[in-house]
Specification:
The chain is α+β, with helices and mostly antiparallel strands and 117 residues long. The protein contains two helices and five strands; from the N terminus they run E-H-E-E-E-E-H. It has helices at 23-32, 93-100; strands at residues 10-13, 43-47, 53-59, 64-70, 88-91. The chain has a five-stranded mixed beta sheet. The chain is globular. The chain starts with 9 loop residues before the first strand and ends in a 17-residue tail after the last helix.
Amino acid sequence: MLTFNGNLRVYVALRPCDMRKSFNGLAEVARSALGIDPSGGAAFLFTNRRRNLIKILYFDGTGYWVVAKRLEKGTFSWPADIEGGREKIVIKPTALAMLTDGIDLRDGLRRPWYEHH
């Protein structure tokens, strides 16, 4: 089972990624574009241009996990590079959970596509 603890480093790739990539392709993006060894125990979050699909790459010590979520409608609230030139930012695991649950990280509001049942 995939679980994240509160000390996990989560790197968000700010530029859209080719979502056809899987284990090796996403690990290479982490290495080359983000400059981080993906086998170091951090999680890496990627999205597509439309911001309706995300993938998480995580190495748990024995192998890589790739987890994907595609929205049927709407988009994810994705951080922007407001300083210019950055390839990544670091967020806390709680922010990752909020992002995947439909919370707009800029103002703390639920995105229109999110409905709690």
